[in-house]
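Translate structure to sequence.
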């Protein structure tokens, strides 16, 4: 091919050469972008690897610290267990150093004399110790505190002192009393970790116990029934007395576990009980809080049947009734030992409808309210009072 023919082909090949050059430039640009992205991915991968390694080291450090704290806590728990064990041994030692509780030796002659004296004064007009002339008009308010313990039990404050302590008797037969320092601790905490424990020398029976002027008066059954006077300050038995009533039966028809209900009012200490001699109605006795002697006794017209609880207000026995299928509780019988309040003039107080049946109802004369235990719930009834002559 001659030179002149090559010159003729150049115009035809020029566009193809330019297209090929453009394609090569495009491929080079794409390769350059791909290389930049690969470089960025490599940098990011290196950074993520570094962060992952740092995070792993941090987690390992935290796990080591947690293991050290767990070991420290285990050591502290073991140390606490050792201290608790030492404290229990010290408490046991102190209990052995306390004087032994007095034995209950029944002097038959003295007991017969006390019963004869009480029977001579039986149903006599009562000489009041105070000028209290109030009676319950109605339940002003009800407050549900919490649910604690068994379906049956007792909770109360000191009926005579100024202490704010709460005393809890869980169940109808036990030997340990829970003591909370204030109402707040009893209300806020469901467990008993905020409570002190008092282990009694004898187990109690029923829910008729009472805290009065720094002493616990509780019922013990050992053949016959005994009233035990227990000093809460030094944890010792101060006195005890066999209750001088023959063939006792449960005082409340709906609470068969309670044979003696110890109550307090503005006049002092009382005992509510029942015997086979008059098994349909309740009996009432005035107690001497110092000696536990019975000062006077009364037969009341208040029946035991369908009774679930009772308390005394200004010398007047108020008996609360219900039905075996729990409904609304109400005071249906009032017996005033001074004779100033006729039964037909007394207010028949209704308690708000609640859960089941009261296993205990404790009147606080200094607060004018009733501490009740209802199917495991702890309730407070605030009472509206009136003068007896106004009712």
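Result:
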């Amino acid at each position: 091919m001659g030179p002149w023919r090559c010159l003729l082909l150049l115009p035809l090949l020029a566009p193809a050469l330019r297209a090929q050059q453009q394609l090569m430039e495009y491929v080079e640009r794409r390769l350059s972008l791909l290389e930049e992205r690969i470089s960025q991915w490599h940098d990011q991968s290196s950074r993520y690897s570094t962060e992952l390694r740092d995070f792993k080291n941090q987690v390992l450090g935290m796990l080591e610290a947690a293991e050290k704290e767990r070991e420290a806590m285990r050591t502290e728990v073991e140390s606490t267990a050792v201290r608790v064990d030492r404290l229990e041994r010290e408490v046991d030692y102190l209990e052995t150093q306390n004087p032994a509780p007095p034995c209950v030796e029944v002097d038959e002659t003295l007991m017969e004399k006390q019963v004869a004296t009480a029977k001579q004064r039986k149903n006599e007009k009562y000489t009041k110790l105070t000028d209290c002339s109030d009676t319950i008009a109605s339940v002003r308010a009800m407050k549900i505190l919490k649910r604690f313990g068994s379906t049956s039990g007792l909770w109360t404050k000191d009926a005579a002192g100024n202490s704010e302590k709460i005393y809890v008797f869980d169940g109808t037969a036990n030997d340990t009393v829970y003591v909370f320092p204030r109402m707040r601790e009893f209300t806020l905490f469901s467990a008993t970790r905020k409570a002190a424990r008092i282990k009694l020398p004898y187990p109690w029976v029923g829910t008729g116990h009472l805290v009065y002027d720094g002493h616990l008066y509780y019922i013990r059954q050992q053949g016959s029934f005994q009233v035990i006077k227990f000093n809460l300050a030094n944890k010792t038995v101060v006195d005890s007395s066999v209750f001088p009533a023959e063939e006792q039966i449960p005082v409340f028809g709906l609470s068969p576990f309670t044979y003696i209900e110890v109550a307090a009012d503005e006049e002092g200490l009382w005992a509510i009980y029942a015997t086979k001699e008059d098994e349909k109605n309740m009996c009432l006795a005035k107690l001497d809080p110092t000696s536990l002697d019975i000062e006077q006794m009364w037969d009341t017209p208040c029946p035991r049947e369908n009774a679930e609880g009772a308390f005394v207000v200004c010398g007047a026995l108020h008996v609360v009734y219900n039905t075996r299928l729990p409904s609304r509780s109400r005071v249906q019988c009032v017996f005033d030992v001074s004779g100033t309040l006729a039964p037909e003039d007394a207010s028949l107080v209704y308690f708000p409808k609640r859960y089941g049946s009261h296993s205990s109802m404790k009147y606080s004369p200094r607060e004018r309210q009733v501490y009740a235990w209802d199917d495991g719930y702890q309730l407070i009834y605030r009472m509206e009072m009136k003068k007896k002559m106004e009712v």
